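MODEL INPUT / OUTPUT PAIR
PAIR INDEX: 1
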Amino acid sequence: MSKEEKNTSPSSDYSQGIYDATSLGKPRMLVLGLQHMFAMFGATVLVPLITGLSVSTTLLCAGLGTLLFHLITGGKVPAFLGSSFAYLGGFAIVAPMLMDESGQQTVSNTEMLPYACAGVALSGLVYVVFSLLISVFGIRRIMKLFPPVVTGPIIIAIGLILAPSAITNCQSNWLLAFVALGTVIVCNIWGKGMIKILPILLGVLVSYVVALVTGAVDFSGVMQADWFGIPLSPKAMGLFAIDGSPEFISAVLTIVPIALATMMEHVGDVASISATVGKNFIRDPGLNRTLLGDGLATSMAGLLGGPSNTTYGENTGVLALTKIYDPRVIRIAAVFAMILSFSPKFDAIINSIPAGIIGGISFVLYGMISAIGVRNVVENQVDFTNSRNLIIAAVILVCALGFNSVGGLSFTVANVTINLSGLAIAAIAGILLNAVLPGNTYEFDDSTGTGEGASLRV
């Protein structure tokens, strides 16, 4: 009897992992699915709080995106698709949050959010293109274009660009910010089991209790919200912003290049899931199919007015903790997320979280984005004594931060004004330099599902 057959037998020893959760019974499968939903919850709802998107729409897109991903990959990969933090920089540039009349809370930029979502939708098509290229030319040849010396500095720049907004939110209530930040740090460093896996969610909950005690929560919106409603709002749908306007073009040029970094994140997450489960998903169902699933899920989310989707490392942590590797449990979590999305009351509760708490969570989150970029180049042993690598990284960082500080680069083509953000310019410059300068020795190893670029997580 094979190892996998042994682990799918109801009477077997589950110490090596369970690949067929039906042996546990439906009630336990529902509980396990609920656990996966809570694992993704804190990070997933944080993205709409920072960007101004709808929490309900985000949960719906996460659930639908996960089910679409499982459909395209043949239901083989136990991955959950939640909101990606990598696109926060693009949203901050295209549709920055606005201050309300009191100057204490930030509100959605309803005029520009649809354009940002349209950019997200088109960024998903980048995944589709690369999926096709991998199918035609092979994974090693395509991955050679995106070594860690390019993707690492781009990720570092994303976190640094976002840093000022974290401080701005913290300034509204430093007490709540420090409580949220401290809780995340304590849970992540000293927590055990699920506490260590859910630091963001616990950080929000603990600081929210403090906000309730200190009277910093406004419940007016919660009292007025309905218990049931449709989680889609035409005002934020990227579907209605694909109009060829200068705003649309600028949003696309700002947000689409971010997909180059998130695709590397995807590779790292799929490799991590492969190592956890003991199956090489890079080969079967294949990176081309997992990229296609992630890309189409992101395009769908953008068209519906949600943030980009990405495979979630939080849920990989739950897989490692529980040793329940059945993808059906993940699909149950997706259904739970979709059910929650139909409650405007729940959306209002999430939106009642004070800006100070968001600032405290963002304080560590944005720094971690940059730190992950540093880890990416360190773990992949990028040699910065090599002038080629040093020049590529230097140009990427200066372009991203420098051009961002002056509002990007604007120029006119056929009477249309186009604005390239610092991130877009940095991505273009990095890819071109990597392609032109001699000495590109990067190789991706698909035999184990890992490579020099496979350790990324944003």
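PAIR INDEX: 2
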Amino acid sequence: MSLAVFSIAGCGQSKTDGVLTLEIKATNFNVDIPATGELEASNSTSVNVPSGLRGPQSLAWILPNFSDVKKGDVVARMDPTRESYRLEMEQFDFDRLGLDSLIQSEKDKTIDKSLNTDTKLTAEEQQLAEQFFSEDERVYTKIDIIEQMRNQGYLAAKMQFFDWGIDQHGSQAQAEQDLIKLKQKGHKAKINRFENNLNKMEIVAPHDGLFVAQPGWNGVDPVVGDMMWTGMTIGTLPDTSKMQAKLYVLESEALGLAVGKPVTVFLDAYPNLPINGTLTQLDALAKSKVQDSPVNYFEMRVSFDKTDEAIMQPGRQVNAKVHALDLQEVISIPNQALFQNSGDYWVYLKSTEGFIKQKVVPGNRSLNRTVITNGLNTGDTIALTTPPKRNRI
């Protein structure tokens, strides 16, 4: 935090009491909070990883930052190696199942042919057995007649078996084919997914503009090898006609920050050119800019009164001063001269007989000074440190 230079008088070593003192004078009390950051567009179009791209994809190439692009230009490309390999493997399994289906069909045809042939032969045998069957004991003995009857029963049972076998094999063959088709359906779904991913490996600009890479959660721009997910913002196409500043203020220096405060911004490339703006957005909580860093910052946005497109370009580094306080002709003292206990505040006021404990009412405070709203007058002299007991009344 920076303060305007104050006019301080009477600060010196007294010849009589040996205590460092300060003569009170009304001065201006200004508090400027330093901030750093960069320029960005107030409005921009996001350039995102295509929706529907399933699974993480590795970034293979990205357009250099701050490149001019036309609508439809490729700004980034994913690595298709893994998806192509997966597609080939799924296509291989799909085709293999197709061959399995053909082989199974040929086997089923052979079995059907064998069953039908056996059925036909058995039917002919059954017909002959019925045709030449006779119960005339004049022609056949009883044993021969019994054997003929047993042969007819066997052939009838054999025909029933073949009929059952034909029906059973038909159902089993259909089930096997259905199972193969079900497996193919699963592979086909994966094939479609990988083909869809391969068709979405390129990220294109939605319109003409200036491509600005979008830093990740760690503040680092995307680089080759980073993992990308569907819908992830990889960059922006900013509207450079209206710019704003994204600034960071140390948590320890943020006293007095509030929306609406005036801000003066300086481009690092043009340090002598002040740009006036207003604090329009302030985070409620401080956070670190770098992962695992113990140093926290408040992030804020500053809008400008006007934009000079010739020099105010996205990504340009800036430093700024947030004018948190500007009080005219007030009494302020160094923080070291103000003492407090249990809510009571006092200073040691110099009198003709020594230093007396003078109660005061503090007001606005900075890192090194405090405004006194009641208890001190211009011309008073106070001690800058606790006076020795021999000098106190």
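PAIR 2 NOTE: The domain at 2-29+330-391 is CATH 2.40.420.20 (conserved putative lor/sdh protein from methanococcus maripaludis s2 fold).
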